[in-house]
Amino acid sequence: MNTLTSLIRSRFDPHSLNKEAALMAAGNGYAGIRATHEEDYTLQTRGMFCAGFYHRAGAQETTELVNLPDVVGMQIVINGEVFSLLSGTVLSLRRELHFASGELKRELIWLAPDGQRFAIESRRFLSARQLPCFAQRLSITPLSGPASVSIVTGIDATQTNAGRQHLDEMQVRVFDRRWLQGIYATQDGAHQLAITSHCQVSRAENVRFSAKNRRLMQHISASVERDATFTLEKISWIAVWLDGTGQGSDISKDGLEHLQGCVAQGYDALLEASVAAREMYWRRSRVKVSSRNPEDQQALDFALYQLFAMTPCHDARSSIAAKGLTGEGYKGHVFWDTEVFLLPFFLFTRPGVARQLLRYRWYNLAGAQEKAARSGYDGALFPWESARSGHEETPPFAAINIRTGVRQRVASALAEHHLVADIAWAVVQYYQVTHDGDFMTREGLDLLRETALFWLSRTTEANGRLELHDVIGPDEYTEHVNNNAFTNHMAHYNVAQALHYLRTWQACDAQFEARAEDFLTRLWLPQPDEQGVMAQDDSFMAKPAIDLTRYKAEAGTQAILHDYSRAEVNEMQILKQADVVMLAYLQPGTFTAAQLAANLAFYEPRTIHDSSLSKAIHGIVAARCGDAESSYRFWREGAQIDLGPDPHSCDDGIHAAATGAIWLGAVQGFAGLYVSDGELRLTPCLPEHWQAIDFPLVWQGQSLHFHITHDTVAVSADSRLPLTLWGKPVMVTGQHIFYRRDFCSSEPGSATTEGRA
Amino acid sequence: MNTLTSLIRSRFDPHSLNKEAALMAAGNGYAGIRATHEEDYTLQTRGMFCAGFYHRAGAQETTELVNLPDVVGMQIVINGEVFSLLSGTVLSLRRELHFASGELKRELIWLAPDGQRFAIESRRFLSARQLPCFAQRLSITPLSGPASVSIVTGIDATQTNAGRQHLDEMQVRVFDRRWLQGIYATQDGAHQLAITSHCQVSRAENVRFSAKNRRLMQHISASVERDATFTLEKISWIAVWLDGTGQGSDISKDGLEHLQGCVAQGYDALLEASVAAREMYWRRSRVKVSSRNPEDQQALDFALYQLFAMTPCHDARSSIAAKGLTGEGYKGHVFWDTEVFLLPFFLFTRPGVARQLLRYRWYNLAGAQEKAARSGYDGALFPWESARSGHEETPPFAAINIRTGVRQRVASALAEHHLVADIAWAVVQYYQVTHDGDFMTREGLDLLRETALFWLSRTTEANGRLELHDVIGPDEYTEHVNNNAFTNHMAHYNVAQALHYLRTWQACDAQFEARAEDFLTRLWLPQPDEQGVMAQDDSFMAKPAIDLTRYKAEAGTQAILHDYSRAEVNEMQILKQADVVMLAYLQPGTFTAAQLAANLAFYEPRTIHDSSLSKAIHGIVAARCGDAESSYRFWREGAQIDLGPDPHSCDDGIHAAATGAIWLGAVQGFAGLYVSDGELRLTPCLPEHWQAIDFPLVWQGQSLHFHITHDTVAVSADSRLPLTLWGKPVMVTGQHIFYRRDFCSSEPGSATTEGRA
């Protein structure tokens, strides 16, 4: 349980090339580099992305995270034959991503078409110490006789985002016959990029350089004796200069100097430094489980590896893209996924990063205010999809119907307003976990006030009360409804919390106070019926239900849309994900234990789980209902979204939110952690497969550690820690072991949360 | 000798993919489509180009012929295996381009990795009748058992010019679940493009469409019984709307209607119509040879196939790109190649096309005048590289030194001014061959006056005479010299002819007349020395010579520049091509027979032939010297520039000028045709390999036919035709056979031209 797992592939399959490129991508929050092979394959999509490096390629286009020039690619020619895993015979292959070090290693024995054998090894990593540093090492050992080897590698700026070019080539140079450098700028001039690369080879008969058609290449050729090893060490310094910061800087010299420093250290020393930097991360956040299924630990390590890789901790003006930095999917845009699925992990392990993520929203308040004003509302209406400017980036014509030619604006940008309250929820979560008053005064109160102001202006007078009309909840299969339960409750929470904190900080004016109180009194809050079930919206219960078994079996593929139009789906009880279940997750106090179970039982059969956000949340809520086995099944299925067998499930990038949800499911589901009324609460509910779960936590400045089995909760805390365990308040100082039998008289798992709190 | 040859490949070699894609490209002067395989290969560069469809992708970029969205590509999956010639085993393969029909056909038997055999055939052509129509047919026959087949094909707008994207996607539609249409515009809005495609399949279980990431695709799947044949007929209408002509037109409807008309006809009928249109071309221009080397006829047929494919006869605002429409090389720009190497073929076979090519220059006079004025000269200084606007398109930084970072303007654009006189030469040639007074008054006189005015202002007073300083002749290895023989003589010719024709048409003002006469009197014309050798320029004879044997063996590769810098090459007697030999070709009257031989003997050892324009011209001049065997050797080597074994010789497009030179060498070299003082002259000099050459010709409106053997010249002419044969004037009416023995007393081949005329 102590050694970090890795991700291993021992077979080459051209069909899963791009999935593997995303799963095994290198990343350090600053840059992400897809795990493409050195050699080209027709279906292989290379990709390098830097956080915040967005550009729009034309008036008809959408802002997207730019796929930057490639440094990974190497054409390897051995004895005149272009090396490829599709030619000759691959006698053995092992590709392994070490989560601990972030190093990707490929080892193989290749039987070339001419019958000669070669051992080929490649290694690479993105430094966690010096974020712009990417290092590669290639070695080739002829096993049957001497060989001629030639390598062409460099900086390839022919990369595009599916044919869209974002970069102008500003300068291409080779310094001192060693240092390759390409300087690029986005076509709008906003951002600059300097890539500087250096190749060190064990021996070379001939080295030359070429610069043509956006490719700056070094051509190396060498003769290698049998059993001798030819090595190539390529180190690149990838420096982005966002928002005009490159102006006035000597970005060429900067790149050269930094790279020279890295080259002086060499691959091994750079790796060692990077591993040391990562060690701290793992120590502060790793979740260890004892499970009968070894894939569980791997899923958790994978998730944390990716959470590190995707998060731009260095820059509060960047946030986490829906696919992290692993692909072009969703154009690198930021969704509510960040606040709801990703921020909690950082909140409980590195709260400073969680603050950065909230500051990203605070920096972008102007765009949100502009969108609210444009839509006829007050306050801040955050963009459904966000990039760097803070303006709405949802592609206007994503829903263009290629048959009718009708261009529809994407409905999410028009009506999926719950995002506003989700951000406010994250602000409150952050404050409750950190008690960070500095944040509240600098950013938190602004966010709470502006989000609340939005809701105050968003209401409709109807039925003698305030209602929220024409919204879309998280369930995107049900559009343009009135009084979506999730939205109404979250909006109410948003305004209530804003009023509370603005009053606490004496930052509340009378007019706001009056409007907020009226809103809180008069906003219609959907309530559970006598069976305990809360209607998703005003019209939901009147709609017909159909058997979804077939579509649930293909969850995530949106197969329902092959049989029904969106309009038809909208008129049935068909959910992409269940809003009431999501509400139960975010606001556990809304429901009694019995109501929780009733809602889960009612909505789950109506939910296809076509959203990658769905299963994990159902799993957590199932755990809170004490149904550990359903919870485990959901959790495993959630982990399979990226790690499962579908060869194309994440071709254009891993699902960042689903990755965050692997941690959420373990810590908030099975360990049963949640925050309510400013208190830390734990109601563990381990699945039968698991003997124990073990994780660190930061709570209001102190470092905690939990070790939970089916029968015990061991907690260590530096100082006094009040805690609610299985619904009962306890106090911890130092090491403490609690026994479940002392808390729960009934069956394990039957203990629930708010019902007893 | 009567059946047109074809180009056949019976082996698949990934190294020569791109060469073959250029050699076998489809073309009709309107569009060119590279002969890429349906399936993708990592090194394969797809390409579709339309004449005149240029765009500049950014301020740092050069205007280039846009690589348009691809329609050729098809992903073929059989029993779940992606078809590729690199997987499984190719049991037989034949790929054939029929020059007569322009149809490219590939037939193969594929043993799939699962052991099943399949016959796969694909055919395609660009219509010569309806220029925007491109038709493809794919058929798949399972030979071992039933099979599932799936095809994905459509319109792929992810194409770029080496990573540079030129097009905005304006609209993407599927009409009536059958007609795919993508409408694109250059990013500057100048040109529009509508591609409409339709697929007809023999059977399909499932058809769906997708539009994502600039790819509009049709997905077809079918089950096919053993020995049954699945066929897919894809017809595309590729309509370009240049210079804003698309505005106000319903280009969508236009594309649909035209395509519907084509689809109603079907592949076979469309092909038949296209072949009929091509037949006329071959009848009017085919050169037939009886040679011991069958590749000679193939080279001539190849050349004429490509001359048809590259020449935009439909649009006088477009001209012939240096690589035709077969690749991105030279960015699709137009050079002096057009006037000197390509125009003569059309002049003698389709003079209307030759006039179009000259009108292209006339339309672009404004740009040439602007460049002259900007450079401090009068008249018209045509751009060294020209696209559609008529402005200088030579990449400013092509010569950027990646080691020093120093950006040099390409010298050709600054000083390679002979182009101006070359255009005037073509004007005079055109008039002499056609006696087209309409052309002369509308365009010819303008071109002659403006080019002459340029030279009048280009002189330097030195040594008591007018000199031309700081020029570059055709030999680009010798830069910035004074009194380049080629340039001075051609400039003199230009002014003399302008004066002559302006006087003839009474379009000459006194001032021009006076300046021209002074120029003609006082311009220094380099003269042959006592050995008959003319110095290439003032400084040439003082430079040292070195042994070039090694570099001549690698002609065309510029290997000299690996050993010497450009500056060093400039200071030695090292020629890329020989200017004096080129002058001898264009102005035969400049030299006596003895001088001709002396210059060839002097310059050839000093010439590497690194220019693809070099060998053919040496060959023609050798023939004029009576050296048929040297001439033949040069001619064959010239034909090998594209057709030879080098697998990468024309990856980015065939050498248009070298293609034209295959015709020049046959007709102007071996048949010894040339025009002097307005007279048609023939001094045949067949190589030993050839028994006969046979070709049609248009001369001053009448159709002639020549059949030439070593001993005879058979001529047919409709009406009276004065002709100078082996230096003696003869008159032809109807059929006539002349015997060499009646003209030449001495050895065959010793008869020369101007020496006797």
UniProtKB/TrEMBL annotation, chains A, B:
<dbReference type="InterPro" id="IPR005196">
    <property type="entry name" value="Glyco_hydro_65_N"/>
</dbReference>
<dbReference type="Pfam" id="PF03632">
    <property type="entry name" value="Glyco_hydro_65m"/>
</dbReference>
<keyword id="KW-0808">Transferase</keyword>
<dbReference type="InterPro" id="IPR017045">
    <property type="entry name" value="Malt_Pase/Glycosyl_Hdrlase"/>
</dbReference>
<dbReference type="Pfam" id="PF03633">
    <property type="entry name" value="Glyco_hydro_65C"/>
</dbReference>
<dbReference type="InterPro" id="IPR005195">
    <property type="entry name" value="Glyco_hydro_65_M"/>
</dbReference>
<keyword id="KW-0328">Glycosyltransferase</keyword>
<feature type="domain" description="Glycoside hydrolase family 65 N-terminal">
    <location>
        <begin position="10"/>
        <end position="238"/>
    </location>
</feature>
<comment type="similarity">
    <text>Belongs to the glycosyl hydrolase 65 family.</text>
</comment>
<dbReference type="InterPro" id="IPR012341">
    <property type="entry name" value="6hp_glycosidase-like_sf"/>
</dbReference>
<dbReference type="InterPro" id="IPR037018">
    <property type="entry name" value="GH65_N"/>
</dbReference>
<protein>
    <submittedName>
        <fullName>Glycoside hydrolase family 65 protein</fullName>
    </submittedName>
</protein>
<dbReference type="GO" id="GO:0016787">
    <property type="term" value="F:hydrolase activity"/>
</dbReference>
<dbReference type="InterPro" id="IPR011013">
    <property type="entry name" value="Gal_mutarotase_sf_dom"/>
</dbReference>
<feature type="domain" description="Glycoside hydrolase family 65 C-terminal">
    <location>
        <begin position="675"/>
        <end position="726"/>
    </location>
</feature>
<dbReference type="InterPro" id="IPR008928">
    <property type="entry name" value="6-hairpin_glycosidase_sf"/>
</dbReference>
<dbReference type="Pfam" id="PF03636">
    <property type="entry name" value="Glyco_hydro_65N"/>
</dbReference>
<feature type="domain" description="Glycoside hydrolase family 65 central catalytic">
    <location>
        <begin position="301"/>
        <end position="663"/>
    </location>
</feature>
<dbReference type="InterPro" id="IPR005194">
    <property type="entry name" value="Glyco_hydro_65_C"/>
</dbReference>
<keyword id="KW-0378">Hydrolase</keyword>
